[in-house]
Amino acid sequence: MIQVEGLQKLYGDFPAVQDLSFEVAPGEVLGLVGPNGAGKTTTIRSIAGIIIPTKGRIRIAGHDLSADPVAAKSALAFIPDEPHLFEYLTVEEHLRFVARLYRLGEVGPRIPGLLDELDLSDKRGALPGELSRGMKQKLAIACGLLHEPKALLLDEPLTGLDPVGIRRMKATIMQRAAGGAAVILSSHLLHLVEEICTRVLVMQRGRVVAFGTIPEIVAGRPDLQTRKSLEEVFLALIGEQESTGQ
Amino acid sequence: MIRVFGYLVWRSAYNRIRRQLRHLRSPRYLAALLLGTAYIWFMIVGQRSGPAAGELPDPRVLELVGALALLGAVAWGWVFGVERRVLAFTPAEVTFLFPGPVSRRGLIQFKLLHSQLLILFNALLWTLILSRERFGVSPWLRAISIWVLLTTLSFHRLGASFVRTSLSEHGRLAVRHRIVSLVVLATVLVALVWSILDALPEVAAAAAGGPRSFLSAAAEAAQRPLPTALTYPFRVMVRPLAADSVSQWLAALWPALVLMVLHYVWVVRADTAFEEAAVETSLRRAKALSECRAGSTGRSRLPRTTAPLFRLAPVGWPAGAILWKNLVAVTRTRRVRNAGLTLALAAAVVGVLSFQPGGTLSAIAGWLTLFWAGLTILTGSQYVRNDLRGDLLKLDLLRSYPLRGWSVVIAEAGASTLMLTAVQLSLLGLAYLAFLGNETMVPDLEERTLLLLAAIVFLPGINLLGMLIQNGAALLYPDWVRLGSGRPGGVEALGQNLLMTIAFVALLAVALVVPAAISSGGFLLLRPALDGWAALPATALALGAMAFEAALMVEWLGRIFERTDPTAAGLSF
User: Fold this and answer.
1) Nearest residue of A to residue B398 by CA position?
2) Whole-number average pLDDT of chain B
3) pLDDT for the residue B273
4) Which chain B residues are closer than 8 Å to A49 by Cβ?
5) Is the peptide bond before A157 cis (omega within 30 degrees of 0)?
6) What is the reported pTM?
7) Residues B548, B278: Cα–Cα separation, whole Å
8) Sign of CA dihedral B472, B478, B481, B484
9) Can you tell me the distance from the alpha carbon of B441 to that of A19, in angstroms, rounded to the nearest whole number?
10) B404 CB near a chain A CB, below 8 Å?
11) Residues from chain B contacting residue A102 (CB–CB below 8 Å)
12) What span, in angstroms and rounded, lies between the C-alpha atoms of B295 and B293?
């Protein structure tokens, strides 16, 4: 369960995120969409405990992120769009490193299955410098999934993946959600969001523009009744069509 | 094209400085600037109130010492080729310049122009450091002399590195292309080896009389015809700095300028194969730089996948994983096993040699390793950087881990502390063995053993405090401290590195004042009752005080780590 109440993040006087509140229940996949600079990454990084919100409260699996950051972070995984790996650790050593950080005990028996799921089995002893961009992304995902997080935060997770990798990644996300994880997925790939997200949160200039399932969003706005896909709804919501003169 | 390069260099520098100055709105950065300005001012004023005109160093001695130092720097460049970093293009430079209508020669000229920023800054620093009273010329003339010297040296080391790169990339083809450079190098090498062998008996005999006698004999040997000829170009570079009148300076400057221009021509007017090698190096480095954002340290070669020195236990202190990671990184970037074997072999050899009559060779080895050990105590923490200075580039990742800030800080600083202490103790152990059979030396064997034991007891604490200072600086001023594996290198950056070292040693000394005072007080109080054994509780008191200080620093830095906003600090990628 992820709970966000009154989240605000200011950079100087600039409000990156304002008065943001929502919840993501176990098993749910929330799609976070919005134009560049909408505040999606700031939101997701605040929930991951990377940046400190100016105001607001975040709870991960019942743990207050501010009061008990270790317990809260133990329950979550953050997978950024750019894989951050340690140049001198092999693929397997990355997993063992994460296992120790998250107090998982001996994870040796679990490693082959996870590597197989992400198509990294034959790269077990490779260093990040020997991996392609997509493989690095897969390794970052494997590290995030190793401790079976109750909250999964994904920021553009498909960047750099090949079609097979994208398919596997989608299956992995849905599998984790089916297993009871609360998932937040930030992406510009609206068809992906439409395909796997149970609800959508549309942001613009740090504020919530719409929140709910696509039918709920459409139902709440009579002017959107003719829009069928999330892309059409999204463009209408952020005023793209007006700005292009349509 | 030069105007475009000039625009890029100037605007980049201007905007960078403007960004740095914007930090002054933060009281933390403003305080650091005020302290830094006061420190540099103190250094200048301190120098000017130093020796009077009558105590000026002999220009001939100055010239010789400077020439030998430059010879060492140049030799280092030929052996290690470190100046290739000048050609490390940024990803943006690669994107815009490499596919653009810019010749390879143009690219090299651009980087030379870019390197002038660092050279000019350090020429200014050296001008301030070297007081007028000591060198007898005006600050402006001194600045020009230093600029010429640093630029020539930078060009030379870059040229040397080009030849090395060309040889490694193109093999025999490069030998044909670089035949003139290689013949000159071979001649110099032969002459150098011959000079050393010629002077070795006298110098070795003098070494038995201690370092002063050794240096004096080495200086005398350097006055012979062949060493004089070998050091001539270096003397030409130093001479304007040693001049004590304007006319002397003018007479000394033009040969130095000619040497600089010749070096420029050597570096820029290179053939295609040579340039290709240089550009290939640049591309590799640029790739490594771009990977830095994903966790690389900017090295051009892939690390070796060797088995770690020890495995990470699946259970235990979670932050221990960070400590382990940093130690594994060291074993994969340095040939630790080879170094260990070499050290063991060297220890056995010097240990045996120390019992030989005279023990000259082991004495030279002993003094050299002692010198290096001393140097690592002062500067080691700036070079051993497998800690937050490297990992802050991945602050997003570190902050997402379920760890408290203090545990991250102690694990990061602890890794560097362990590495540095291991290096220092190895060097001290080697020096101890080199003097093992020396019965005439003061301090005697028993005292030397006690000193070694004291080093084993105190160095980890001293190093930990030093590493916390360095990591604290990186955490407090991430935009002003160089992050990543390397610090500004090369002789042209020596000025700023020297100032940083002095500032670091001063801070470390301040941190050690309280433990030293408590320990001394305890010793004086307990000595009447315990006699010499009072040293034991005094040692415990000193260690306790250092541990207390380290704990306070770790707690404080941990809180700063938890509060640092990666985006605001410019550490978010």
Assistant:
1) A50
2) 80
3) 45
4) 399-400
5) no
6) 0.77
7) 51
8) positive
9) 75
10) yes
11) 318, 402
12) 5
Residue B394: its chain A contacts at CB < 8 A?
84, 86
Give tens-digit pLDDT for B109-146: 888 888 888 888 888 888 877 765 555 568 888 889 99
In terms of Cβ atoms closer than 10 Å to its own Cβ (0-12, 13-18, 19+), residue B146 is buried
For the ranges A65-69, B68-72, B342-346, the one whose mean pLDDT is highest: A65-69
> What confidence score (pLDDT) does residue B53 get?
46
The interface predicted TM-score of the complex, written ipTM, equals 0.85
The residue assigned the tokens 């130092």 is: B69
Point out the residue among B296, B315, B322 whose CB comes nearest to the CB of A105: B315
Residue B297 has pLDDT above 50, yes or no: no
With CB atoms and an 8 Å threshold, state whether A102 touches B318: yes
Q: Which residue among B318, B332, B568 sits closest to A100, beta carbon to beta carbon? A: B318
Q: Is B445 exposed, middle or buried (0-12, 13-18, 19+ CB in 10 A)?
A: middle
The distance in angstroms from the start CA to the end CA of chain A is 41
Please report residues of A whose CB lies closer than 8 A to that of B329: 86-89
| Selection from A22, A25, A28 nearest residue A201 by Cα | A22
Mean pLDDT by groups of 10 residues along chain A of 246 residues: 94 90 95 92 93 94 93 93 88 93 89 86 89 88 92 88 86 92 92 90 91 86 75 78 45
Which residues sit opposite A182 in a β-bridge? A151
Distance CA A234, CA A218 (A): 10
How does DSSP assign B53-68, residue by residue? GGGPPPHHHHHHHHHH
Is the Cβ pair B293, A128 closer than 8 Å? Answer: no
